[in-house]
Amino acid sequence: MTAIDPRALAEELKAAYALRRTDIDPPSSRDSHFDLDDAYAVQAEAARARRADGRVTVGWKVGYANKALWRALKLDTLTWAHIYADTVQHAAGEATSLPVTSLCSPKIEPEVVVKLKAPVASTDAAGVLESVEWLALGFEIIDCVYTDWKFQPADFVAAFGLHAMLIVGEPQFVRHADIAALADQLAQFKLQLRRNGKLVEEGSGKNALRSPVLVVAELAAAMSRRPNGEELKAGDLISTGTLTTSQPIEVGQRWQAIAEGIDLPPLTMNVTPR
Questions:
Q1: What is the pLDDT of residues 89-105, one digit of tens each?
Q2: 6-272: which CATH architecture?
Q3: DSSP H helical segments within 106-238, as ranges?
Q4: Which of 44, 139, 184, 240 could form a disulfide bond with 167, CB atoms 3.0-4.6 angstroms apart?
């Protein structure tokens, strides 16, 4: 059992982000007993404090949505963290802007964002889509106060899932008649991540647990197994895990996510100083 106090660590990490520090020792390196149970307790303290300050939770971001990592990192499921109304930005028009002067060491991850219209009760893709109001491409902006971006899954969870911002593209509403085809497309579509017009990396829907909606099913099941935890509900936004490797971002860059094989509008973001 760890000797680290959850409330104190939540305050420490909050202060580190505010000061834009990048030299924090991960809690797992300070105490070998620090585990995911402890990390979720830290996250709960952070959410409690933020809600007390008037901030509103609006959903979840997912981490480690790739089973290839689970064995190496001794995970039996994915991880998750809260997202907030003031950390979600809906893209407007041809492009949206992201100011980064308040961030420590930001990176970008292209993802599929889901909005639920009902709790998730199914474990198959088509069944999950019955609970989905809409889908969109998104950019999850992550930020890290740990030295050299080195951390374990418990450290990731404790540091609020590294969540900084979620940029959400134009939503595509899910019609019942389209669910069967959409379930297939989500597992097969390709995604281009471009920087300043040049291809950086190509990803695929299968990179997130074989399909972004299967991530939602796994998230619902994993959350239900955690004692005294929260559960998915209607209205939640879910950022379902990166489809490429994380890429560092800098002022002056223009990032694009372009999907092929599925009807999801492209997303463009300009990185600005303010």
A1: 998 767 789 888 899 99
A2: Alpha-Beta Complex (3.90)
A3: 125-129, 153-158, 179-188, 212-225
A4: 139
